[in-house]
Amino acid sequence: MTRQVSVRRSLSATPSVRPTPVEPTRAAAVPSNRAAAVPSTRIAPHEPSPRARGACPGRHRRPGGELMLAVALAAALAIAGCAAPLAPTAALPDLPLGTGWTDPSAAAVDSPGAASSSANPVDTNRALADWWRTLGDPALPRLVALALERNADLRQALLRVDEARALQAVADSRDGLAADARASVAAQRQSENGLLPIGRIPGLQRDVVLHDTALQASWEPDLFGRVRAAREAAQAQLALTRAEVDGLKLALSAEVARHLLALRGAQLEAVAHRHVIDDLARALALTEQRIAAGDLAPNDRHGPQAALDAARAGLPGIEARARSAALALGTLTGGLPEQELALLQAAPAPLAWPALPVGRRADLLRRRPDVQAAEARLVASGADLGGALAEQFPRLTIGASGGFQALDLGDLLKPGSMALSLAPMISWRFLDGGRVQAQIRAAQARERSAGVGYEKAVLGALGEAERALSDYRGALATLAAQREATAAAARVATHAAQRATAGDLSRLDSLDAQRRRHEADEAEARAVGAAAQQMALTVKALGGGW
C-alpha cells in the first residue's frame, strides 16, 4: 500500500515549496495484511534557503532540510496508516468436556454431608467459598484467617502480583510520549592545533563556559503491534500471578482444614482407644481374679495380657498423628511449629457435615486457579509471539528537543539563544544472522507448549475432581456403614450389661461386648477423620474454599 502525501510548510524566511516524491531504495515482502516496507530516504544536509542565497524562490536545485524533514514525516504517516498490528490473539484449544459428571449420583446424595448439585454457578461458588465456616469447629475460621494473612508462600505470591502490576505500568508507559529535561554547565579548553584552529581564528576563545538547558521528547508510534504485544504480555503476566495467588489461597485453606480435621479425628480415635484399653485392663483383672480363685489356669492370663499390650502400643501412634497435625498448623499459619499445640488440649467439637455443593462440571474450569493460570500463560505466549513477529519490521521514532544555549549565563534565556530540533528516525534490523527468525520460532514453540499446558491443566482438573468426588462418596459410604456397625455394637453391649446384671452372663463376657463397642467407636472415629479430610480435598479439587 503506497500513499502520495503532499506536505506544505510555511517559514518566515522561506516561501512555500512542494517536495518531489522520494523513491524507496529497498522493499521487503510482508504479509498481505501488513504495511509495505518502509522506504529508505536520505536527507540532504541543510542548505540556506533560495532567498538567503539570493536566488529566485522558484529556482532552487536541491530541497532544504525542512523539505526533507517534511518528506520523512509524510512517509512515516503513510506507514502508520497502512500498518496493522502483528500481535495475534491466542485462541484457547477446543477441548471436549463431556456431558457431565461420570457418576450422576455423586451430585445427588440425600445423606448428611453428601455432595449436592446446584444449577446456579454463583450459588455454588458462594457455598464452596464458605464451606469450612459451617463445619462447627470454632478454631478453623481463626486458623484459615491466620494462614491467609501470615503464610510466607502466600505473601511472596502477593509481592509477585505487585511486581507484575508495576511491570504492566511500565509496558503501558511505552505507548505514550517520553520527555526529560536537562541543564548543564561545561567549562572547556579547546586545542589551538586541533580540527578547529582556535589560535588562527580571530574572535574565538580557547577557554569557554557553555550553559545549556533543554527539554527532549520522543514518541514511537506502534506501527506493527510491538508495544501492544508487550502491553498484552504484561496484562497476561499480571493475570497469571493473580491466579497463582488464588491457587495458593485455595491450597492453603484446604491444607489448614485437612490438618485440623485430621487432628480432631485423631483426638476422637484416641478417646475411643483409651476406652478399649480400659476394657482390656478390666478384663485382665477379672481373669487374674478367676485364676486366683482356681476357676482358670495360670496360662489363661496370657491372652488378655497380649491384647492389652497391643492396645497400649497403638495409642502413641494415634497421639503422634494429632501432635504432627498441630505442628503442621503452626507452620501453615506462618508461626512457629509449636504455636498451635494448645489445640491438643481442647475437646473436639462435633463435626457438622455441611452439604457439599458440586455444581456442573463445565463450571469447574471457571473456578480452578490452575486452569486460569494456564490460560494466562497461553495469552502471554501469544503476545510474546506478536512482539517477536513485529521485530521483522521497521521502527519509527520521532524525537524533538528545544532549549537554550549560551556562553554567558545572562544571555541564556534570550531569544537568540534558543535551539530547536525535530528528528524522525526509521530503524530496521534486516541483517542479523537470522536472529529474528530464530526468536520467532522459539516464541512459536513456547506458544504451542503453553497450549499443551492449558490442555493438560483442563484434563487434569476434570480428572482430579472426578477422583475426589469418587473418593469422597466412598468415604461417606464407609462412614455410614461404620455408624450402623457402631450402633449395632452399642445395642449388643447394652444387652450384655443387662444380662450380666441379671446374672445370665458373666462379667467377663459383658466386658468383651463393651470392648467391641469401643472398638467400633474407634473405627467410626477413623472413618470420620478420613471422610472429613477427603471433604477438604474435594473442595480443593472443585476449585473453591477460601
Protein described:
The chain is of the alpha+beta class and 546 residues long. It folds into 3 domains: 84 residues, no CATH class; 258 residues, Up-down Bundle (Outer membrane efflux proteins (OEP)); 78 residues, Outer membrane efflux proteins (OEP) (Single Sheet), CATH 2.20.200.10. The protein has 11 helices and 6 strands. The strands form 2 sheets. It has a 4-stranded antiparallel beta sheet with strand order 2-3-5-6. It has a two-stranded parallel sheet with strand order 1-4. The N terminus is likely disordered.
Number of strands: 6
Shape: elongated
Q: Write the CATH fold name of the largest domain.
A: Outer membrane efflux proteins (OEP)
Structural class: alpha+beta
The major sheet is characterized as: 4 strands, antiparallel
Instruction: Give the uncertain stretches in residue-range form.
Output: 1-63, 108-119
Helical content (DSSP H or I, runs of 4+): 40-55%
- Helix tally? 11
User: CATH homologous superfamily of the largest domain?
Assistant: Outer membrane efflux proteins (OEP)
CATH class of the largest domain: Mainly Alpha
Distance between the termini: 56 Å
Write the CATH architecture name of the largest domain. Up-down Bundle
Structure summarized in a few sentences:
With 546 residues, this protein is an alpha+beta fold.
Structural descriptors:
single chain; 546 residues; alpha+beta; Outer membrane efflux proteins (OEP); 11 helices; 6 strands; elongated; disordered N terminus
